[in-house]
Batch of 2 targets.
Target 1
Amino acid sequence: MSSPPKVESPGVDAGTTSSRDVPFQLLVESIQDYAIFMLDPAGRIVSWNSGARRLKGYRADEVLGSHFSRFYPEETRRSGWPEYELMQAASDGRFEDEGWRIRKDGSRFWASVIITALRDENGELIGYVKVTRDLTQSKRLEALEESERRMSEFLAVLSHELRNPLAPIRTMMDLFKTKELQDPQLDMIRSVIDSQVSHLTRVVADLLDIARIQHGLVAVRRGPVALADVVAHAVQAVRPLIEQKSHDLDVADVDPALHVEGDFVRLSQALIYLLNNAAQYTDPGGHIELAVSRDGPDAVISVSDNGRGIDPAALPDIFAMFGRRSGRRSDSDTGLGIGLGLVKRLAELHDGRVEAHSEGIGCGSRFTIRLPLLPATESAEPREPDRPDSDAAAQPRQFGGRRRIMVVDDNRDFAESLAMLLESLGHETKMAHRGKQAIELAERYRPETVFLDIGLPDLDGYEVARRLRTLLGEKCVLAALTGWGQES
């Protein structure tokens, strides 16, 4: 075995014997975060520091004299990559790389590697210094970020592809409702289609929401929120289902002083899920109670029903994703079992928690959301909740009377169905399916309102909007349409 190449310590005079000077070899040996070892010109290991022992798992006597390629995966060794690294270092003086390496126990780690060629005073190659650092954690974070990016892109595509066919169906149903039907069967057909489209739309929204929440893609816009407003909004949203099932909904008065720091839309969403859940799992003519109370520093929102109840054995897993309230599925059950999982995650996003209580099957159930209350001084003047009807300035301008409307969408079914609906309301419409076509049509037609798709195949909707604004001025109302809708 050849002896290690002799390397002088930079900045240390070889003739100095002062006890204050730290020997270079001791300095290298003391480094724990980097594997630092030396190779002879053929790539055999001739030195081994403590960092190398810690990182790779080998003692010095296990590796000295062996070829450094032993630390590379088999497929990398077969490709001749280790030899290529030495060749490049000898040619350029230095070689840097990242890749998988193998520890003694067979596990892989992601390594950052620097190989530096060593030459004597005559320029002859006498060996190499190899420095290796473990970047596995950084690699995992990078992979996680890439996974989140891909998931975000997937959700955007999924949202677009699921919403695109639903939009024209929903629009045609709205048009259908404006028509007088003499045939009772047609009226029943319309009602069934409308109900099922509404259900499918909710399922799509639930799937997208839970996927976003699970991947940390949902932003909660925090601010003071009056729980009385949340209750009023949720009750209004579920009233049609309550009436359809002939339930009696008893809503206790809510103290207007109860405020939490949260997102009005998301808190309302959680309560709507609980109320819908109670209505779904209670036989027609049932009784549902909604109450909000103070319990020390917390607010407790409670939804109780006298419905089917929950099997006690199912209670520990009631909020598991895709679980069922009863712990088993019956033919009358609908939905994917993700509503309660969503409620749990939405409560946790507000530093709260949700609980389920039931004495058993047939005994009804009670769900409670517990949220930290805001101190009275912070909730005295809450900001207006972030919801569509909270800001008059953000309201779409009403168009009274007959208006010239242009519909721009590459989804022809949706464009035609929306145009038909608008015409049934007394407006004049024109359609375009591409951005450039829309601009040319606008020059002739001079629309007063434009429903504009964002994802057009030639010019995107933003560019079309800029050109239309220049062409038509501020009086023209531009309404964005997109199946790519995301929080961002």
Target 2
Amino acid sequence: MTTPFDSETFAFFSELVDDNTREFWQANKARFDEHVKAPMDATCSALEKSFGPFKQFRMHRDVRFSKDKSPYKIHAGAVATEGGRRYFHVDRNGMLIAAGSFAPEPDKLKRLRAAIADDASGKKLQAILNKLLAKDYEIDPGLAKPLATAPRGYPKDHPRIELLRWKGLMAVHRVSAKTLAGDDAPHKRIAKVFQDTKPLVAWCEAHLDA
């Protein structure tokens, strides 16, 4: 059993969205510690046994180069430190769990596209994605907006052109706040996603980390 997320977790984030100020944060820091940080700590600790340590992201935003000067993130997230291909976060809507390649660096993006385009590795990837789609996972382009057309050097009529236009490759599962609230073993939901997505993570590790 881990510390559960509860209705106060999601209420805190809803209020933070509406009042993203230092004053709100200071007045509600104790709520954050009890209803967000404590269950995040417990969940990460429980996942570590099977998936290695997780790093939690700071709630403070780096606003130096952003037009949005809101000082705090509106979700609490953590990423696996071993490979960095497993991630989850909690926000006012519930939980997002993802695995794959979120925002590959230019050299890895180049290798990702080459592996997608290759007949053997590309078809293997498509088979993996089809199985995940059949289990109602979302397949997502990652953190960057896809290209409007084919990347340089690839034909526009390639059979996997949509994937080639992407700048990342993620499988995503979402859990509603209503479903998650009071669940005393949220790490089991996350672990199920990470188990289901092992073939995608292995494919990414084989082709992006060479």
